[in-house]
């Protein structure tokens, strides 16, 4: 019996030893193929066993017998990894995952991966989140972005503005929405940006020469409005936004709905706002030896309305993504009644009878946009196609009056600008080698511009541009990344002849003629753009340098304008012999991140060989000074400095300084700066977050203090502007509502001390009109 028991024990011991000798384990690390950083939270499947990587990106599976095993690794934002191995001993694996380069993942995947991608990029780039946009909501999209260092605006009244990046604006800054360049009347100083800011969730700002990727007009930078985030399958959400403010008695509302089924989805939004004349902290305006008294401190005839609507329909699958987006933006805005050529001082209109009516002069703007974005996904290629059609119609109305030989017109339509734009972008993103990501791109755009009304400024014209580029991103080492690219653009502008509708005497003769103001001309342009950049990453710091060469085609107004611009009280004359602008720029950026403090320094230097600008001359036309477009060499330099300090979890202090210095090196204005050059400015912001306050589940208190230096660097006849300080205060809070929803409340008091401010980049600053006075705004946002 004992011998039999010993036999069983020996058999069990032998089986245990045999089993122990024939079981194995697999250890491994999951690593980003480009950055070489480990990935925590990756899912690993080996036969029927599952595990995830720990905080160090490692995993461990044991008790595996000898044989064949299929390993699958899944991680959000990366291509799945599959591999079959033969297991006859313990193994240690290093698995490299490649990021999915798809539009879907660029929208959905945020956080660490997005930050790593931004750090690798050699351009000076800043991402603006939806939270930032909601907390800093102004009267226009660009006013909302004014807190971003290096960004300023040319404001036209209370609700219109256009972007300025490091002192350059107009057609030197490209605004992109859903991949298509926004085409309106951006050449005009009094023309705003027709985009519904409530329909914007994510903005990317690129500071510096970006012609390589976005075409010739991106010589100063890009405001890239990214596609809105896609919902998870079979979900529905929406929001209702209501706003009112005291300064101009504004009331506004916007409602948006998004729904996604399994593959199909849609989004729609409607926005409306109505406002009256806005108030300024003065009761008198002094201009051209005239004194304009203001009733109740209101800048008369600056009221307006806006009506916006949009709808998007899309389809998504593993290999295909497409969305068609349609939007319509309408605005009717009055111009300050004493600004339009000063004739209004003789008008019989009672501008002070109602602060909400819109009298002459005013304008109507309608912007219709239809775009389609489609992406095809292949094993090693992502092909993107972006199609767009835009129709922009701007009508300017003013009281008819006789000027020179022009008799009094029979109607009030002074000018009409109509632009139709057809766009096509095609890109192929692929990886020819393991460490390279290459993009081949083609951009096409055709414009047809027509005019109307009894006033002439620019002729009818057509504009055709086509450009192709190649851009490559690659890693030189685990910490060193490079980007290089080259592009060629070809463009053609055809101006149309124009004759005045009234007779004028022929100089030195008794005869009269219909004076010709523009001729039929065809002009072609072509140039290369190049870019070379390097970024170096450490655990807590990033170093970037980018060298770029860009160019910009002259615009029709720069080439062929020949008329009175009453908004600017001058006669503008183009120059058909202008050459394209060429710009050489060096952008650098240094970024440090510690546990409580982060610093960012981004200096730049920029040289134009032939900068185009409007130069005042000593000649006059009907008592109006003649301005002529000319060119000169220009050197620009400056940059931004920002700091973030979080001493406690709930307290955040940020500060920024921005500076631009411009100098003309040749031409009739040698040693002068450029028009609309922003002065030295700094912003200090304090934010305190309370997790729970009274009945609110979360609340935030914030204060913004802006200090702006005087601007004495001007181009005559510009006038200097004084220094100023401005204080803005605000509170945001979340009020719990039924069904687990909430109402976000934002209360802001802008220009708290009612300071009299002259913004050097404001349109009305030219006629000595200060910025709006104290303004209390209340915004309610309900999400469902």
Describe the structure.
The protein has 784 residues and is mainly beta. The chain has two domains: 2-99, Immunoglobulin-like, CATH 2.60.40; 104-247 and 258-783, TonB-dependent receptor, beta-barrel domain (Maltoporin, Chain A, Beta Barrel). Helix content is 7%, strand content 55%. It contains seven helices and 42 strands. The strands form seven sheets. The protein has a 22-stranded antiparallel beta barrel. The chain has a five-stranded mixed beta sheet with strand order 8-13-14-11-12. A four-stranded antiparallel beta sheet has the order 3-2-5-6, with no helix packed on it. The longest helix is centred in the first third of the chain and has 20 residues, at 2-21. The termini are far apart.
General form = globular
- The total domain count is 2
Class by SSE composition? mainly beta
CATH homologous superfamily name of the largest domain? TonB-dependent receptor, beta-barrel domain
Return the average pLDDT rounded to an integer. Answer: 87
CATH fold-level name of the largest domain = Maltoporin, Chain A
CATH class wording of the largest domain: Mainly Beta
The biggest beta sheet reads: 22 strands, antiparallel, barrel
Rounded to an integer in angstroms, the radius of gyration calculated over CA atoms is 31 Å
Low-confidence stretches: 1-20, 101-112
| Approximate strand percentage | over 45%
**Helix share, percent:** under 10%
End-to-end separation in angstroms reads 78 Å
Number of strands: 42
Total DSSP helices: 7
CATH architecture of the largest domain: Beta Barrel
